[in-house]
Amino acid sequence: MRGEILKGHLELLVLSALRSQAAHGYAIIKTIRERSAGEIDLLEGSLYPALHRLEERGNVSSRWSTTQGRKRRVYELTRKGGRALAEHEREWDRFSATMKLVLGKA
Amino acid sequence: MSAIDEYLGELTRRLRLCRAPGKRLVLEVEDHLREATAEAVAVGVPPVVAEQQAVERFGDAADVAARFAEAAALTVAKRSVAAAALAVVAYAGVAAAFAIAASPLMRDFPQGAPTFFGLQLALVALGAAWVRVLYWRRELAMPATELRVVTRSTSIATASVLFAAVLEAALALARPAGFIAWSEAPALVVAVGCTFVLAAASAIVATRASAQRHALDALPRSRRRKPAEQPRDHGRGARAAAAILSTVERRPWTAAITAAMFAVALVAAMNLAGSDSAHHASILSGAVVAGSVEAGAIIVGFAAFSRMLGLREPVVRRGLA
Asked: What is the Cβ-side half-sphere exposure of residue B105, based on CA atoms within 13 angstroms?
């Protein structure tokens, strides 16, 4: 699953990957891939503009850490981000339920 | 040179072309690629192949740079609106303080006139930029036409404040009384200094935002994200403000003439209220002349700047009102 179908849902995916713990970019991609059993395979470079925007809006905060001599930026969900995630989830549930009804799968 | 080093070099070069602040991004990408490579190597993939795969999964460096530059340009544009707003508010405060506290300064024509007209232009420009930023604030990128209007508007707002301040200072120094003495109102002189610093900072941010926008404009169309015609989500306030802007866009000259007529009435009323002359005829003629000058300035200002401020050309915001 890639490209158009995920357009607009990247933020929800990123915020949900950060729900339980802080993580760096690659760990976020891995979490999304693992939770979707490999179905969601993001073009990894698309993650960083999304993180930039989420940080700009105050939905995530970030800090540098050092691991094995490499500088690493770690992202964390903020309280505002938690509220945004809940809102995104409600929207998604509504959208998903509506699509099931339309497709006759409900 | 390894595939990762080559990729990081290309990404740095592309980010520089887009004038995007990429130092942090490059460090993050390096960590990302090296970790992906290490994981693949740990399960038996040869290092050269692992690096190549990590780079391929990350995506084309030019595309990544363009996406990041779009997000960064919107951020800088938002900051330029905030910086310009700060400079305009500070200047308006200082001008008001001069008019109230420092007796003849800023109240004796031609002093005060550059401030009066400069602030009006700055406020209109700031309003045009602010509405657009408010409207697109939740999107990853703003359409190029809108971003262009925002960066131009903040440049115009900052330039008007700086121009008015310099002209006022020149007028004050040209007068026999000279500029306000430090001993007369030290707090006011400090406030003037702070205002100049804020205006200079705003000019720097506005220049940076313009440079980033120009760099984005220079990118091939294929590299750019196809912008949304409308944002997915925006507040009620933003919708109302954008509807007013759409009305001005549809009937620009009607809006300008209405504003001019309103200004004639307002300036004439202010002159009548502020005058202490006993000659009613001279008060009235003075008020009419002042009102007419203001109306003329609005019409001339609108003719000169409305296209740059996006008030007379259709922009990508269909179906708003």
From this structure: 26
